[in-house]
Amino acid sequence: MIITLAGGGSTFTPGIVKSIALRREELEVDEIRLYDIDGERQRKVGVLVDWILHEDLGTDIKLTVTTDPKEAFTDASFVFAQMRVGKYAMREQDEKIPLRHGCVGQETCGCGGMAYGMRTIFPMVELIDLVEKYAKDDYWILNYSNPAAIVSEACRVLRPDARIINICDMPIAIIDVVCEALQIDKRDVEYDYFGLNHFGWFTSIRCKGEEILPELRDYIMEHEILLPDSYVKNAAKQGAMAGVKKDGGESGAEQNRHTKGSWYYVWKGVYEIMELFPEYLPNTYLNYYLQQKEFVEHSDPERTRANEVMDGREKSLFEGIDRYEATGEIDESIFYAGSHGDWIADLALALKNDTKARFLVICQNKGAIPNMPYDAMVELPAYIGKNGPEVISRDEIPLFQQGLMMQQVNCEKLLVEGCIEGSYEKVLKAFALNKTVPSIKVAKEVLDDMIEANKDYWPELK
Fold first, then answer.
1. Which residues pair with 2 in a beta bridge?
2. How confident is residue 249, by pLDDT bands cut at 50, 70 and 90?
3. Residue 152 lies in domain
4. Looking at the predicted structure, is the pLDDT value of residue 242 above 70?
5. Cα–Cα distance between 411 and 419 in angstroms, integer?
6. Where is the signal peptide, in residue numbers (predicted)?
7. Rounded to an integer, what distance in angstroms lies between the CA atom of residue 391 and that of residue 380?
8. What is the tens place of the pLDDT at every residue in 61-82?
9. Which residues are catalytic?
């Protein structure tokens, strides 16, 4: 059993590898391969991964670190894809260019998400072709690469037969926060959800079969935020409470990450949405679409989340690796192992062992939501077995949610068509249709700046 991580130089790689290794018996994994086009960055991450596998956990799992796709993918059963085309330097542009024009600056939503998507579409197709060429016939690509909605739509159009499952861990991160707030065990929780990636709603959350959404709603209204008291108190104790735009970046602890910098307003925004629309629990990313004006006002155009990550998680990880290489001493707080890695490792486990476990996946609608297009890429619960997802259908969704989703679906479809065809007009229409953009004039201004910033990555638009 060979598992390859495409994007092996990611700061999330150590946590994902640890999640795989902790399931080595159920996955029967013999070898983990790291594949990246940035050899030096990946080499450094590989040093930490080697320590995790052989020193920390004492496994005999073979580790291969390579920039050669043939070596990376030959006979692989699973490929975990987590590419970031353009790295954090381009993420910074994705966030700062829209803010200069008064639009939301976010890496997966709005103009920034569309820019990132256009950089990722063709590299993802190239990855699929390489995996198809070298991997086992029954391979699965489990894709974490953002923006997952645009990537999954492009895969549907360009590689419809690829064995790829697109996933996102943000709903799981939200459930983790919910469970911590209500002090319940997430292993006892099951939920219903519908939407698009980074654009959806929890319609039911059950603990041991009992509906807890009303209790959660009361908690959010009382605290005026969806964050556990323990997170807020711990952050305050460390003098790291958010709401300060120029803070020191993310810490190694996951709970601190959610209370710092721009993240604080995301969790605060859940309260502000539910105060007006209390029926469902929104995905936190809906803030950028439903409170675009307020989120622009909260943002610092000179210091966005890209800077927080670069000064926090990125800096901490690579400085920690450098210290380890120099001294032989390891600080485990430099990497985070949790839901992000557990989610994708457990998905692989369900596919391999045909467990029919329930996961949230991004998939072609095919009537699962009756009043959404057949070919829309929606995010829904599914049972996962050896043949892939068995999506759980639901009734028609309310007009408000359907209207928002249709606008976003059409925006993403136009973007993918424009990128594939090299059509400036179609890409401009996608920017103009996006709910985070206030006018067609602003859409054109942002797009023209984005074209200049992405000239080394985007296809030529005519």
1. 31
2. very low
3. 2-166
4. no
5. 12
6. none
7. 7
8. 999 999 999 999 999 999 999 9
9. 169, 285
Helix axis angle, 170-182 to 229-237, nearest 10°: 90
**What interhelical angle do 339-353 and 170-182 show, nearest 10?**
110
Q: CA dist 230 to 48, 182, 313, Å? A: 30, 11, 22
Q: What H or E segment, with its residue span, contains residue 115? A: helix 110-134
Q: How far apart are CA 132 and CA 160, in angstroms?
A: 13
Please check whether residue 380 lies inside any domain of the structure.
no
Helix, coil or strand: residue 438: coil
Neighbours of 362 (CB within 10 A): 26
CA angle 330–331–333, rounded 5-degree value: 150
Domain assignment present for 363: no
Compute CA distances 1 → 217, 372, 425, whole Å. 44, 39, 46
Say if residues 227 and 254 touch (Cβ distance below 8 Å). Answer: no
Report yes or no: 201 and 282 within 8 Å, Cβ to Cβ. Answer: yes
For residue 27, what is the domain's CATH number?
A: 3.40.50.720
Binding residue numbers: 91, 146, 168, 198, 305
Tokens of 297: 């006002």
- 323-343 confidence digits (pLDDT tens): 999 999 999 888 877 788 999
Instruction: Please report how the helices 170-182 and 213-223 are oriented relative to each other, as an axis angle in degrees rounded to 10.
Output: 80
- Phi, psi of 339, rounded to the nearest 5 degrees: -60, -35
Q: Is residue 90 part of a domain?
A: yes
Number of H helices, E strands in the chain: 20, 13
Total domains in the fold of the chain? 1
Give dist(CA 175, CA 206) in Å, integer.
11
Feature table: binding site for Mn(2+): 168, 198
